[in-house]
Amino acid sequence: MSSLEVWIIIILVVGVIASNLAALKYSAKFKLPQFGQHDKEKQLKSDITQPPNEADGNETQTTDKSSNQSK
Predict the structure, then answer these.
(1) Which residues touch 60 (CB under 8 Å, ≥6 apart)?
(2) Are 60 and 54 spatial neighbours (Cβ–Cβ below 8 Å)?
(3) What is the rounded (10 degree) CA torsion for 47, 48, 49, 53?
């Protein structure tokens, strides 16, 4: 292997490492929701917005199926 090929490989490796570090630093700014926390919020919202007479879900499931078949 010539010295030019060695330098190209070294530069490529250093470039990959630098780009990975830059991507890691950039993505560290984002906040992700904790596991399980999103499910609890979703369940609370659905309980509040859903009327009590449709709590069993039978009516909504049958209407959803018929609307999907018509499409």
Answers:
(1) 54
(2) yes
(3) 60
